Automatic annotation (TrEMBL):
SUPFAM superfamilies: Ribosomal protein L22 (SSF54843). Pfam families: Ribosomal_L22 (PF00237). This is Large ribosomal subunit protein uL22c. Keywords: Chloroplast, Plastid, Ribonucleoprotein, Ribosomal protein, RNA-binding, rRNA-binding. Transmembrane segments: none annotated. It is found in: Plastid, Chloroplast. Belongs to the universal ribosomal protein uL22 family. HAMAP family: Ribosomal_uL22_B. GO terms for biological process: translation. One of its GO terms (molecular function) is rRNA binding.
Amino acid sequence: MFMKKKNKTRIYALGQHISMSAHKARRVIDQIRGRSYEETLMILELMPYRASYSIFKLVYSAAANASDNMGSDEKDLIICKAEVNEGTTVKKLKPRARGRSYPIKRPTCHITIGVKDISLYEGEYYVDPYINNINKDYLTPLKNLRWKNAYTGMIDENVYSSGGVWDKK
């Protein structure tokens, strides 16, 4: 039923001590997890957050690592792992009036981006984790998953038909 896997290598890029809150970086990371490399670059270029630039550089670095180390092509890469962990907090004291001081906390975070080449997994199947009985009918070949398709829009079609964001009533 399942074919023998060739090489299960994942390539990572790690950015440490990036000076931003982990919560703000997770807001961007959640949008790119599981997407293709090219789609991820388009999304990150258009996002208005400060964390987008740091994550863009890490995704670009992970793809460069994959092409250099494994000889992978960029169109076959997907983001298999994207996580943000809290780093150390830089603590300073700001002088205030009457000899008092006010603490300033500058949070940092560690961002890990992992990419995987799906051309190494040709002929294998994706098993949906929510299905208990493994049946051949429920298996989807990896070539039919969403990251193999061309660019898919981020805006849901129901936003326009149901009023959505623009409903001012």
